[in-house]
Structure of hydroxyacid-oxoacid transhydrogenase:
Amino acid sequence: MTWSPANPESVFTYGAPQLKFGAGAADEIGHDLAALGAHRVLVVTDAGVLSTGWPDRVADGIRGFGIDAVVHDSAHVEPTDASLVAAVERARADGPFDGFVAVGGGSAIDTAKAVDLLLSDGGELMDYVNVPVGAGRAPSRPLAPLVAVPTTTGTGAESTTICVLDVLSLKVKTGISHVRLRPSLAVVDPRLTATQPAGVTASAGMDILCHALESWTARPFTSYERKQPGERVPYCGSNPISDMWSERSMSLLAKAFRTAVRDGSDEAARGDMALAATFAGLGFGNAGVHVPHANAYPIAGRVRDFHPEGYPQDEPMVPHGMAVALTAPEAFRWTFESDPARHLAAARLLDPAHGARWDSDDRDVLPGILVDLMRDIGLPNGLGEVGYGEHDVADLVDGSLKQQRLLATSPREVGPDDLHGILTRSLQLWD
Amino acid sequence: MTWSPANPESVFTYGAPQLKFGAGAADEIGHDLAALGAHRVLVVTDAGVLSTGWPDRVADGIRGFGIDAVVHDSAHVEPTDASLVAAVERARADGPFDGFVAVGGGSAIDTAKAVDLLLSDGGELMDYVNVPVGAGRAPSRPLAPLVAVPTTTGTGAESTTICVLDVLSLKVKTGISHVRLRPSLAVVDPRLTATQPAGVTASAGMDILCHALESWTARPFTSYERKQPGERVPYCGSNPISDMWSERSMSLLAKAFRTAVRDGSDEAARGDMALAATFAGLGFGNAGVHVPHANAYPIAGRVRDFHPEGYPQDEPMVPHGMAVALTAPEAFRWTFESDPARHLAAARLLDPAHGARWDSDDRDVLPGILVDLMRDIGLPNGLGEVGYGEHDVADLVDGSLKQQRLLATSPREVGPDDLHGILTRSLQLWD
């Protein structure tokens, strides 16, 4: 351990939405909304998810329980300040609402969080955005109930207390972060991911895996100096509860990930992936993530002309899970020395068949497992394949360093040279 | 498996309070109450817990955050309709309150649930008590926030949606059961259990163990016929999430239980027991418990003159955890055939050092582990030692059969003859 606090933290916190899981769960949301006291709700989605038919099916189901439901495809993939303001204005025009439902990936769920916040608590978007970009205002009262219905197995947005957005004029990714943004209920119905293309399952699955691995390896809560109650943050470092969710998520991934990519119609594998995503979300939503997620911001944000299979081809993009995965092998080689036993335990969970053969000081085991997996499921061979070269590394380092909220849970103190090394060694992952 | 539903259930639910865990957590409750919007709160405890000083210390801490706090020692150990009505009347006289804090064991927490319900939603106690005893009315709105601060490592009341009470005039144990009774926040501070005598640690620990073992072996949620949304109950049978909590709880107990009984000042063991209790509560609060808990009601309720060490000596009693434990070995010998692999997996979790030696069809392994543990920690040798004989068994069977809410999650259909056999074989557990 590299930390020795004078007055170590002894308290950790754990928060989560209530959960309804399983095939058919998305048809019952009206019942749950009625129990939450809602009479007229807004279903927030994006245009791509709308075209699957699920948001309208969910809205019809809600109406079947005597609750009025309006559908807005107002979420932008990767929300911006402009897209959130537009979504809020459209919701205000069609309101009032006393409940919200998000059907989609992280973008739809985060958009619904912002809409709920601004319709429940008033004011303007920038009032609530984290300082220094915004005024960092906390909501003065509980928000209307928000039911999150993820259609992408990965983001964990159904469990977290944050809404991530790009502020276009400043070219910065920031967020709104408050415990009241956590959805009241997560409804995880594996049927909604049935149409997910293999490329999306692969990227989103790497996001799940990194949620689990990053919270599992996150700086332990006991390694911080003791906090005053008002200083506690939702991401409190690894702890016995987040560890449990992370471990279980890795075991499910070991069983189901390759199968789910190879055969999207395998219901058992899809169910396991949905459960793995939920578990990882419940873990990282409390422990936090670190280096791979910090690197993912500039990797996704500075894309020039990469167009991955399975995603809309109209704009270049590095999907979030892919962006996270690309530096994961090298990040975990670098974090190894913070706690070798923990890294090898993760390797055993992810590759239970080969656990016996490893030395206790082998920093290459976990990166090797990740690289083998990425090759098998069709991820790009490093940052080079998504369009970055050595001359981009300094820029990427700058972008990662802006994610101090995430880097604060790195198990080793991380500076520009460390990130430079990790990113450079991630240009090509295998020969 | 003995169940073959025509249209199997595919959905399970999971609910839990938010959690703050660790030494020092009980000093921060005022901060948490402020975040929940409270200005004037009632701290509910019982006379025994009040004498430890903790309720007043918690109230002082709350006042330090600018919140008014009143302390009532209005909880009766094993709440009755009369004790709850008295607690509600005392609270109404001193109100209004916009938040509640329970400091104590299951009795204090359940009393606070009833007080919160009646002060938040109006009406009389019997309006809400489960049918057929009461009118089974559901609260019409969310209750004021309730923070549960358990001082006994075991009950799990901080996680559950039920308030258990004896209706004196009818000599029946029943409850109030609604999802809105679940506390908003559980604050688990192991310091509050430091003064627990060894006998209490032993009995309460067996309650934890049986919570974990009964939810781990409970009838699987997929073995039920598919429910309509309005038919869902908080106790939905074993499922992947309750399994995880139960397993982890058993591993913690394997590590810490004997040590915590032997040396109450061992902080690590006490912390592990507090965590095991929390985990087991989060598991059984969703999966449910079955035969040992059903039997515990009449075993505790019909006591004549047993006075256990470590408990108040003014009234005869069989402590809840002891009452649960006394038929556990025989209950799990009887449930073995429902899922031998699961029973042996539990045995391996509880006794990891000896896991290799067992045959896959040995129904005696798990009962043997439980009996060895009970001898080591000083539990009575069966129902005979707490004052019951063969002539009492028929009465005890009648009492157990009244707990159909619990028996519904038994992994085998259970009738009077089954209970008669389990109770008879539990009269003496070892030679």
Summary: The longest helix of chain B spans residues 240-262. Chain B has two domains: 24-188, 198-425. Chain B has a mean pLDDT of 93. Strands of chain B lie at 12-14, 18-21, 40-46, 68-75, 99-104, 146-150, 162-167, 172-177, 185-188.
